[in-house]
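Run log // design_07
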């Protein structure tokens, strides 16, 4: 008979039920058909923002995301919006047009969550550093100030 300590049993249990790790070099196709691969954005911060059209905090953060994306896209930042829980692409297009969302939008599905990760809270933003490493998962509203502090390396 093999004896295990409580710590060993917990570790075995965690491994048995752990979610698969998201891939480190995702490839997402936006609504215009363009593919976005994490490795293509080396040297830039990459924000993958999960949102929904019915989500009030998502609506609130859009102007900050648009503003910072427009100011930094040529230098040091890429923003990818991933919409979930939508009726159809037409509904999403109308929302994107109404909100003047200038960054690429991806229709979220199982292949996206398999690569990036799943969440229980919207909005949620996955933040990758310029080397392509996931450094933060920000649940809830994200602000321009928060993003600027991350980019500047301030906590």
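design_07 sequence
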């Amino acid at each position: 008979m093999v004896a295990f300590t409580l710590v060993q049993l917990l570790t075995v249990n965690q491994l048995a039920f752990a979610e698969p790790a998201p891939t480190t070099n995702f490839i997402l196709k936006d609504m215009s058909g363009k593919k976005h691969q994490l490795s293509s954005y080396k040297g830039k911060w990459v924000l993958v923002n999960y949102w929904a059209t019915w989500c009030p905090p998502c609506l609130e953060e859009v102007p900050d995301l648009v503003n910072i994306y427009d100011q930094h896209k040529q230098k040091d930042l890429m923003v990818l919006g991933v919409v979930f829980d939508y009726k159809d692409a037409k509904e999403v297009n109308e929302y994107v047009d109404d909100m003047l969302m200038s960054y690429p939008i991806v229709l979220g599905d199982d292949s996206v969550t398999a690569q990036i990760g799943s969440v229980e809270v919207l909005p949620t933003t996955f933040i990758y550093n310029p080397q392509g490493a996931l450094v933060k998962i920000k649940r809830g509203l994200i602000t321009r100030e928060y993003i600027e502090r991350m980019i500047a390396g301030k906590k």
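The mean pLDDT is 87.
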